[in-house]
Recover the amino acids of this structure.
């Protein structure tokens, strides 16, 4: 392919047509398509299609392509509405990705079935225009040397993004602990080595429940354990997200005094560290936005008094759904933000329960509010049930595109499908072999371990 291109380029030079070949993006009108089969198994496969608009901006698009083999069928698609009639596949953009500026790309994907061979689809079109743009592969991102904390240093909020020491947006991808009151055995040198080195995780969320046998039963003990885990993350170059895991009761004000005591202590102890982010309430529920805002405006000054420049994350209404699970939306926060700087808002989802309407809210809100997905699951909101691969992939593609940081629930061996490790893993010393991973763990590891390519200037 490369050879052919070089040959054509040589002829083109002879014919005086160099410009047309050497800058295909300028010469082309229409679109360019990158089609990748990310995995294939007996009779099935998963593929991604990235379509870049090289023509005028579009609001609303349909991607068309042809399956060359009669046995190839789309089984389930994401990030678009998919249909197939005979060999012709039609893929229509959704509310949140329907606008494509010139040069902008939409990424969609599907699982498919095939019999016989599985050749690459042909005749890609965008709104009926053939995608004849360059099919040259983009160079893979160049990973930077050093750990995530070495490269990025202290973080801050810039506009709606999380930014590094060069004031450039970054996305952190990592895992959340389970409740440390229950799964403490899962967090040790070997498991955190695996998370940092094999998973290449950028962050560890330390989930400290307040109730359910958590912090309230032993404030000094839990505070000490959180600090220990902050140090273990730091030693491996990972960020640590300190999660004050309120859940039941859902009104964070119930724990206001405990929060003030806890954050005064951890903020003073960790103020000089580059790797700490504070999440002051996990999932407010059964409480108004103004109640949450009032809590935040009392706890943030306590953090700032000890540690003036760290990023603080505030949970949102309806289990950190920006109000969606309570029938509201992000406007209540946009119109009445927390009165503090260097803060972000939490957004949580469980992929099997929360789909397009939640994705629409997130993508709309992302241009107005700094968002951090401090927790999400690949399964239902119970933490169990079947993993939803299509919805999870749609979510993670969207988060990547918007550079929104995330932590997955959970890096633990809990006997529930949201856990990344098989039951019993934490009783042994092996966290690295593929046999210890659940379906959810394997999917998340494959997403998190790809190169970060953090900006370094
Ligand atoms: C769940 C755990 C489960 C535990 C339960 C206790 O997965 O093992 O018994 O908490 O409260 C959340 C919460 C998170 C939940 C998780 C799954 O932040 O604490 O963990 N979830 O239900 N929000 C939505 C889902």
């Amino acid at each position: 392919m490369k050879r052919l291109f070089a040959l054509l380029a040589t002829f083109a030079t002879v014919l005086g047509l160099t410009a047309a070949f050497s800058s295909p993006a300028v010469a082309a009108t229409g679109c360019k398509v990158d089609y990748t089969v990310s995995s294939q198994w007996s009779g099935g496969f998963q593929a991604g299609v990235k379509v870049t608009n090289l023509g005028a901006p579009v609001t609303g698009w349909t991607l068309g392509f042809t399956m060359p083999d009669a046995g190839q069928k789309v089984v389930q698609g994401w990030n678009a509405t998919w249909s197939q009639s005979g060999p012709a596949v039609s893929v229509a953009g959704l509310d949140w990705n329907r606008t494509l500026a010139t040069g902008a790309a939409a990424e969609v994907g599907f699982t498919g079935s095939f019999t016989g061979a599985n050749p690459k689809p042909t005749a890609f079109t965008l709104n009926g225009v053939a995608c004849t743009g360059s099919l040259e592969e983009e160079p893979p991102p160049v990973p930077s040397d050093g750990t995530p904390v070495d490269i990025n240093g202290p973080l801050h909020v810039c506009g709606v993004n999380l930014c590094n020491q060069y004031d450039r947006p970054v996305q952190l991808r990592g895992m959340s602990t389970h409740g440390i009151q229950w799964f403490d055995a899962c967090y040790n040198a070997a498991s955190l080595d695996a998370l940092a080195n094999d998973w290449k995780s950028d962050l560890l969320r330390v989930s400290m429940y307040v109730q359910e046998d958590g912090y309230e039963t032993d404030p000094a003990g839990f505070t000490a354990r959180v600090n220990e885990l902050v140090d273990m993350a730091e030693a491996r170059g990972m960020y640590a997200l300190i999660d004050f895991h309120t859940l039941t009761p859902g009104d964070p004000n119930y724990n206001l005094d405990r929060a003030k005591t806890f954050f005064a202590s951890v903020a003073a102890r960790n103020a000089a560290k580059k790797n700490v982010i504070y999440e002051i309430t996990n999932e407010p529920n059964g409480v108004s936005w103004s109640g949450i805002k009032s809590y935040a405006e009392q706890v943030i000054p306590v953090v700032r008094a000890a540690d003036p420049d760290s990023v603080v994350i505030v949970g949102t209404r309806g289990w950190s759904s920006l109000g969606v699970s309570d029938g509201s939306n992000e406007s209540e926060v946009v119109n009445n933000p927390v009165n503090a700087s260097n803060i972000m808002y939490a957004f949580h989802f469980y992929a099997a329960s929360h789909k397009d309407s939640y994705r629409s809210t997130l993508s709309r809100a992302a241009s107005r509010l700094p968002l951090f997905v401090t927790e999400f699951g690949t399964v239902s909101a119970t933490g169990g049930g079947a993993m939803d691969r299509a919805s999870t992939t749609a979510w993670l593609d969207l988060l990547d595109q918007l550079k929104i940081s995330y932590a997955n629930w959970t890096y633990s061996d809990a006997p529930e499908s949201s856990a990344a490790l098989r039951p019993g893993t934490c009783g042994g010393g092996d966290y690295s072999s593929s046999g210890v991973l659940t379906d959810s763990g394997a999917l998340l590891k494959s997403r998190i371990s790809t190169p970060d390519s953090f900006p370094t200037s």
Remarks:
- Residues 1-28 have pLDDT under 50 and may be disordered.
